[in-house]
């Protein structure tokens, strides 16, 4: 047995597992993940914590048989086993490889609780492939840093114990221990970029530079260290431009920076929002067509599933499937929440001030979209105010106003989202048991 692949020799990585409640292994049945499973299953401290998870993508006719194979292997090793079925069909702008990877990690993330660890079997040649692919795509330092050995994942952590281990050492371990594994026929299809790189390009590179997996892995670590320092500086820049309340960028602060720093802040913004990183061309257009547009204009720039707009001194990033106008929805008075779109829920919570709970329960509650001309009287303010004036006063963008939920009790406007409550319905404890409305999430995100 190769000493490189004993759990003791990988203790610097496995130390994160010592206090783990559960150790989940992403087990495809292939040689790499089988070796990882075998190493862990033969470690007395880890074995009782192990759960092997096979992600069934449904992309191969043999997938059901592979799941059975994996179950048999884990049973022989005395390890718990679970199958996760996912929808790996690709979305617009997403490659089949990316779709399968995203579906796999999304499903696994749901399993990882606090104090849990997910182990995956990516090795040094996988790191080489990743760095080269990122290089060919024109990535910066972050992409050239490759895959980290350890990272936050779900509520727990993800570890790659084999990231400094050669593919040859893994294969040797498998042969030495007479392991049986699955070979996915799609691995030989050069239609996929990674397979083309692995099957056609890397053999040539390794003829000339046999240790390139080790040296490129070292370069990736250098890039990761540099990226760490840059990230610290980026965060300081970003904090001065980012508005946490509505997740916007402040245009005045943004244009006070030089172009390089503007680009860095914009990319950090997309990262913060959880969106796909924009291309260099898109960032350039964003600065020219939106950031530098006239303050009274309403420029719109559409990208991969999102739209960037400006309102007053702020940049907004909107998802393209933003919620539509509600129409007329009855809110059952025995329900404390109501779903008004795929992304958003209105709910009521106990409060020191707000709408009388007794009055709420005795009324017909409806949720509607704005039609125009609605007016509202506000606590501690005289007169009645049009919603148009209130929206302008509060700096609420035009696209958000049309989908802001209006709440009515017996056909009387009582609240506008979680922004305002009518003075006619506003009460304060201890005379009343009150409720407040909570609108989860920002409409434009």
Supply database-style keywords.
single chain; 445 residues; alpha+beta; Rossmann fold; Chorismate Mutase Domain, subunit A; 6-stranded mixed sheet; 5-stranded antiparallel sheet; 15 helices; 37% helix
Any idea of the CATH class of the largest domain? Alpha Beta
Proportion of residues in helical segments = 25-40%
Strand order of the largest sheet: 3-2-1-4-6-5
Report mean pLDDT, rounded to a whole number.
87
Give a short account of the largest sheet.
6 strands, mixed
State which percent range the strand residues make up: 15-25%
Termini gap: 53 Å
Number of domains: 3
The Cα radius of gyration reads 27 Å
Molecular shape? globular
**Architecture of the largest domain, CATH level 2?**
3-Layer(aba) Sandwich
How many strands appear in the DSSP assignment? 23
Number of helices: 15
Low-confidence stretches: 441-445
What is the fold-level CATH name, i.e. the topology of the largest domain?
Answer: Rossmann fold
